[in-house]
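User: Reviewer 2 asked us to show a designed sequence for the structure in our supplementary figure. I'm pasting the structure tokens here. Could you produce the per-position amino acids so we can include them in the response letter?
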């Protein structure tokens, strides 16, 4: 006889044992929010008390954007627009609306199924206004391209099929307009490098869709008029192709449009490049050319000019703070380990910069830990963080500056939806406000004598009554009186990042007064301005208001980050002459360096609307407020599927579907799924029916829910024997189908402590029933003629009724490399009990470690134990464990065994010694792999646009065993099996990960080497 097994339905992956996700990092919600609803004319804005005042301002901005886009796109939204507004980016990253992890660079999201906008307040109201406008365009895009579904209701928006440059670029253009120095910087860089992509290449990952898409739409709208944007969108939503819509609406080939656009870019930016200077590569300190990452920003030079601390992704998988020699650029050490620190949430590197202590021996930086903003103090001598200051009064911390007397740190931070200045007392740890208003206060810098703090603010350029937001200008706050005074510099452009000269008479700052971000110097007394840099691209961080330079307090050295070659690098300026600067370059003022072509625009609607803050702005009347009342709605119906396959039971046909429900905030989620299958050999329909229902409540930090359903597992055996009937030889083929049907209902609860660690509990009831069907077919051994067949139902065991409970602790800091993890560690320790018809306990211990070796090479190891213990742990009604799965010990898959590996014993029974050793009630598995990525972002041939491929050399070993009594009775020794070989894994565009292995099975004398393929990522 030969045993085999077949997992009848993949719904078991939904874990009816109520474990939830086996591994995986947590999306932690550190607060429980009591949402309310602010109702404006067209919006339902969901907010909570922490930012109630800001939510009203937000509602007025939303209605103004609606009025603008209704005019620009000639469209009214078909229903009220829901917005889920969070008070800070930290709160936003824990949203229950979106299941995926949200990175630091995500400012907002508009999802297509229910057209919800989910976003935080961004700090400066101008940034919040921009993100709101950008996301609302997506809502219009989804609404304008949604068609009725086949069963009524709405189908998926056609915009979801369009490339990102088309969708995101359009949103950026309509919310920012054609005048944008930050995007123009990207275009100048591309013109300088002569690397302009064709329209058909814009969806390549090499080209950032926001910047390139905005530049493209600025050109098209400038050439054909702004109303053409809505016309192309409608055409693309119908056809599903961006290029086809452009061709049909604009009546021009995409190739010709590409040529014309490129010509306009060159004509616009070549004069700018001629009037400026390229960056001096001899002064590059940190950059890709020197073996660092592509993003190196936020540099802060030490007071003596010897060191520079900066943000970088040089390790490819996270942004961290590094310390480098300010002379040579040699990296001394990494100050943070963001990827592996389980309590770390964010460095907020987009808008942050650290600060050196006056003696240069300590470095302060802001981070989010366990959902709380903290200021961490790193000590250079001890090479570790020596103190952390909690700032409970704020929600996000940005730039810092250390007082000259070492007693305090001033910082910019968000509180109640607004950005203000705060003071940290280093001795007591207390925090107090320096400003408290709706204006933005950014990037403070303490004067050498400690009497003043320079910073940037929009209070002198904005009109809050009209929600009109100007660029940030320089200002001083007198520490004795807290009086704020402006420092008049340029009349146009931003003025950010103030840094004091050593004697306190001058301020260095960044301005894009002519459309190019450069460093300038202003004498506070006389107002005389000098220009320090005159770069062709721009002195810039990742965003337009990011900190981008630093000046040494006691040395003639300045460091700055600049954008060039598609990357952010850090450069130095040294010496009194360089830091004195020269006369302001007047030739760039007339070149419109910050504007995207075309400058002569046809039917210009976007710019006038953006420059008219009163247009569409409703008054500050009271909006209606209401409590949030959750109600489940159908989110999505998985397309019904029908599948045909082959198994040991013959041809199989099956099908199923799933329905997903949730409330608007995603706090209540329900999933129901059904599937059934049958084979060409027949079978019992009800035994083949699978279904699951799962509810999860995510409103509080404790996630809880219910799960229940039925999952059948099919096992069987078949055999052939020779008998004599009426003295004639007859072959009997016997096939047995054996169903084990698990029905379960359980209550589940879990609590994430950090993004790496969580507790899980479950308790419930499980019924396991059994059914069987035997079919015997007789054939003549002489002629092969089919003589007849018979079906009957053999005896089966009684059903099991079990009460179950499980508890687990899960930890995961691993970093996934596209096909398998390559850094960090993960473990799961779990214990469970079952009581009722049978009584036993279960123990699971799964530990995995990933160690980087040299370059992309890494070592992975795993030790796994799972077992059932107790008096009923080996009851014959419980399925045995099997270690021959490719995810455990390769080379021993059940389907790979043949009769040649079995023997006939003295009692005329068949024994398969190696195969029999793969089953038991307990198992222990050990794995080791040396992994080498070939393609992908970590590959030997690095490419972000190519799906990851890796090779690995492995050694697997495993032992399955039973109690001594059972082992002796069955005559199966406790002996491990092992294998080694090579594996090739590939990521099929995110749909699945394939693993092809060439395996040497050490314990299979009849089959040493063999190929094995499965769909599984690396452990």
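Assistant: Here is a per-position design you can include in the supplement:
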């Amino acid at each position: 006889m030969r045993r085999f097994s077949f997992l009848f339905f993949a719904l078991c992956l939904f874990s009816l044992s109520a474990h939830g996700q086996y591994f995986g990092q947590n999306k932690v919600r550190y607060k429980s929010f009591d949402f309310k609803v602010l109702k404006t004319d067209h919006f339902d804005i969901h907010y909570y008390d922490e930012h109630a005042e800001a939510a009203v301002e937000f509602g007025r901005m939303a209605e103004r954007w609606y009025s603008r886009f209704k005019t620009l796109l000639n469209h009214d939204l078909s229903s009220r627009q829901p917005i889920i507004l969070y008070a800070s980016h930290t709160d936003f990253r824990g949203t229950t609306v979106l299941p995926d992890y949200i990175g630091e660079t995500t400012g907002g999201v508009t999802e297509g199924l229910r057209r919800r906008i989910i976003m935080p307040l961004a700090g400066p109201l101008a940034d919040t206004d921009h993100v709101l406008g950008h996301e609302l365009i997506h809502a219009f895009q989804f609404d304008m391209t949604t068609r009725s579904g086949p069963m009524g209701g709405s189908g998926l928006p056609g915009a979801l099929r369009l490339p990102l440059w088309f969708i995101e670029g359009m949103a950026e253009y309509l919310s920012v307009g054609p005048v944008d120095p930050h995007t123009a910087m990207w275009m100048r860089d591309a013109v300088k490098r002569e690397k302009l992509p064709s329209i058909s290449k814009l969806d390549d990952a090499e080209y950032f869709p926001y910047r390139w898409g905005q530049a493209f739409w600025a050109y098209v709208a400038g050439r054909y008029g702004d109303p053409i944007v809505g016309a192309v969108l409608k055409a693309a939503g119908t056809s599903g192709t961006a290029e086809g819509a452009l061709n049909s609406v604009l009546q021009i080939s995409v190739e010709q449009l590409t040529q014309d656009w490129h010509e306009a870019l060159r004509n616009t930016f070549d004069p700018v490049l001629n009037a400026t200077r390229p960056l001096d590569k001899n002064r590059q300190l940190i950059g890709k050319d020197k073996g660092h990452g592509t993003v190196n920003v936020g540099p802060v030079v030490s007071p003596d000019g010897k060191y520079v601390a900066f943000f970088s992704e040089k390790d490819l998988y996270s942004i961290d703070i590094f310390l480098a020699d300010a002379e040579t650029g040699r990296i001394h050490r990494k100050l943070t380990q963001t990827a592996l620190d389980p309590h770390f949430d964010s460095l907020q590197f987009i808008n942050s910069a650290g600060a050196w202590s006056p003696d240069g021996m300590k470095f302060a930086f802001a981070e989010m830990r366990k959902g709380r903003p903290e200021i961490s103090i790193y000590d250079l001598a001890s090479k570790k963080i020596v103190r952390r200051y909690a700032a409970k009064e704020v929600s996000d911390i940005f730039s810092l500056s250390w007082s000259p007397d070492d007693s305090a740190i001033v910082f910019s931070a968000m509180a109640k939806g607004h950005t203000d200045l705060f003071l940290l007392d280093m001795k007591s740890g207390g925090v107090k406000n320096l400003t408290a208003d709706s204006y933005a206060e950014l990037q403070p810098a303490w004067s050498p004598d400690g009497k003043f703090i320079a910073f940037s603010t929009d209070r002198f350029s904005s009109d809050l009554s009209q929600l009109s937001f100007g660029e940030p200008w320089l200002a001083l706050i007198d520490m004795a009186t807290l009086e704020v005074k402006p420092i008049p510099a340029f009349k146009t452009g931003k003025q950010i990042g103030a840094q004091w000269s050593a004697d306190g008479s001058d301020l260095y700052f960044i301005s894009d007064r002519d459309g190019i971000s450069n460093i300038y110097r202003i004498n506070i007394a006389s107002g005389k301005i000098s220009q320090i840099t005159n770069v062709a691209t721009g002195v810039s961080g990742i965003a337009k208001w990011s900190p981008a330079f630093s000046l040494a307090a006691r040395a003639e050295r300045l460091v700055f980050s600049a954008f060039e070659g598609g990357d952010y690098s850090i450069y130095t300026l040294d010496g009194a002459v360089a830091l004195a600067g020269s006369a302001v370059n007047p030739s760039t003022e007339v070149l419109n360096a910050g504007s995207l072509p075309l400058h002569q625009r046809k039917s210009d609607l976007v710019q006038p609307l953006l420059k008219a803050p009163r247009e569409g702005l409703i008054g500050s009347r009271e909006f209606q407020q209401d409590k949030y009342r959750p109600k489940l709605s159908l989110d999505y119906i998985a397309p019904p599927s029908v599948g045909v396959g082959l198994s040991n039971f013959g041809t199989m046909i099956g099908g199923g579907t799933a329905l997903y429900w949730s409330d608007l905030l995603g706090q209540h989620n329900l999933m129901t799924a059904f599937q059934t299958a049958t084979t060409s050999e027949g079978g019992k329909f009800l035994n083949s029916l699978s279904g699951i229902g799962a509810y999860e409540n995510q409103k509080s930090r404790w996630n809880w829910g219910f799960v229940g359903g039925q999952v059948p597992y099919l096992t069987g055996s078949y055999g052939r024997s020779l008998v004599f009937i009426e003295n004639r030889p007859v072959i009997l083929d016997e096939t047995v189908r054996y169903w084990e049907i698990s029905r379960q209902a359980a209550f589940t609860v879990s609590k994430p402590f950090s993004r790496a660690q969580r507790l899980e509990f479950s308790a419930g009831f499980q019924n396991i029933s059994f059914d069987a069907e035997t079919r015997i077919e007789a054939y003549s051994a002489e002629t092969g003629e089919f003589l007849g067949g018979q079906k009957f139902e053999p005896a089966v065991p009684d059903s099991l009724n079990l009460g179950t409970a499980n508890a687990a602790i899960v930890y995961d800091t691993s970093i996934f490399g596209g096909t398998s993890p390559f850094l960090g560690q993960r473990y799961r320790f779990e214990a469970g009990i079952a009581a009722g018809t049978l009584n036993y306990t279960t123990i699971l211990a799964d530990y995995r470690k990933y160690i980087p070796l040299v370059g992309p090479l890494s070592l992975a190891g795993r030790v796994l134990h799972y077992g059932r213990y107790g008096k009923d742990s080996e009851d014959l009604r419980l399925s045995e464990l099997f270690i021959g799965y490719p995810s455990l010990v390769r080379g021993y898959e059940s389907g790979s065994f043949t009769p040649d590996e079995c023997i006939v014993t003295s009692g005329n029974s068949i024994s398969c010694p190696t195969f029999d050793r793969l089953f038991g009630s307990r198992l222990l598995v050990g794995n080791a792999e040396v992994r080498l990525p070939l393609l992908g972002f970590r590959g030997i041939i690095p490419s972000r646009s190519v799906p990851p491929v890796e090779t690995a050399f492995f050694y697997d070993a495993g032992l399955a065993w039973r109690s001594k009594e059972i082992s002796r009775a069955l005559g199966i020794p406790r002996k491990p099996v092992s294998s080694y070989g090579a594996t090739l894994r590939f990521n099929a565009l995110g749909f699945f990960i394939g693993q092809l292995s060439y395996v040497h099975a050490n314990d299979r004398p009849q089959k040493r080497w063999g190929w094995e393929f499965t769909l599984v990522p690396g452990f």
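For the response letter, you might also mention the following. Residues 1-19 have pLDDT under 50 and may be disordered. The longest strand covers residues 728-752.
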